[in-house]
Amino acid sequence: MQEEKPPEPVIEWRKKMRKLTYALVPVCIIAGIVFLALTLYFHPWTPDLGAPSSPQRMFYKNIFEGLLLKGPLAILAATIVARHTHWLAPPGKRDPTQVYPLFSPYRVIAIVFCSALFASLGVLSYTFFDACAAGAAFACMFFDPITGFFTLWFGDTLRALIWGTGSPIEWLLLGRGVSDGSTWIWLGLFYWLFKESRWVKKLGAGKRLTVLIVFWVIVYWVWRFIYMFPIWLWIDPPPALWTRQIWMVTSFLPSGTTASIVALIISETLERQLGARKRF
Questions:
Q1: Across residues 104-121, what is the average pLDDT?
Q2: Which residue among 119, 200, 208, 262 sits deepest, i.e. has the most Cβ atoms within 10 Å of its Cβ?
Q3: What is the domain partition of the chain in residue ranges?
Q4: How far apart are CA 152 and CA 225, in angstroms?
Q5: CATH 1.10.1760.20 fits 8-274, yes or no
Q6: Distance from first CA to last CA of the chain, Å, rounded?
Q7: Rounded Cα gap, residues 158 and 152, in angstroms
Q8: How many CB atoms lie within 10 A of CB 22?
Q9: What is the DSSP letter of 22?
Q10: Which long-range contacts (CB under 8 A, 24 or more apart) does 124-133 make?
């Protein structure tokens, strides 16, 4: 069965976002090259920048990794998300024949709500259940990856204000929140692209949920491990770097996995309750 051609405004919006995506690709490549050059120049794997998590290391990491490298990558992901216009609509009202604004009153309210939820969940995190990861995953899955990005950026800032998890200024202005949000906007993008694939959409509800969970676990471990490695490279010189990787695979990733799976199940359940989406 042939897919119905989308309306002209949707086609024009997608073209505009696609052009922006193509324009950002060389920007991200240049940013990556500059980041690599700065990494080689400052060689953070040596003791020259001080002890693990020294102020000097944290400052350089936030500016180079958070703003220079991850900032453009987050914008690139946002343009890809925006091409799928119905992703930007409120859950249960996703109409692929409409163009939805990037920052509608609905999205602003969703960001405020999810940021507050994310920050409040900081009190519930345990060794093998990172409740904040559940809040981040819920924002990306139930709403959209762009909402997820700002949830992490602003939610981390709120969490720092409430629970003392670092400097709020560092999270808000110096790239740390952008780095965290960038990780999750890409995770959300991968999730939605897989979820919207023809093969997954044809599955029954039970099989679909199982497949989504399996995919999520794989992409969560692979992406977080690779995408976050530059952070640890700047913060922890060897042998602390290797200890950090052990902590990643034995505590950080398992705790985020269990919590985000719970968020996935809740998101899918709520979505079904709100009714089937209209898709191409």
A1: 94
A2: 119
A3: 8-274
A4: 18
A5: yes
A6: 11
A7: 10
A8: 10
A9: H
A10: 125/255, 126/255, 127/251, 127/255, 128/251, 128/254, 128/255, 128/258, 129/255, 129/258, 129/259, 130/252, 130/255, 130/256, 130/258, 130/259, 131/259, 132/159, 132/259, 133/255, 133/256, 133/259, 133/260, 133/263
pLDDT of 219 above 90: yes
pLDDT digits (tens, 9 = 90+) for 175-194: 999 999 999 999 999 999 99
Q: Where are the alpha helices (DSSP H) in the chain?
A: 8-42, 55-60, 71-83, 105-120, 131-138, 145-163, 168-172, 176-195, 198-201, 205-227, 229-235, 240-247, 253-274
- Contact in structure between 159 and 132 (CB atoms under 8 Å): yes
Contact 134, 184 (CB under 8 A): no
Assess whether pLDDT exceeds 70 at residue 264: yes
Neighbouring C-beta atoms of residue 84, cutoff 10 Å: 20
Tokens 């690599």 sit on residue: 36
Q: How confident is the model at residue 280 (pLDDT cuts 50, 70, 90)?
A: very low
3-class SS at 184? helix
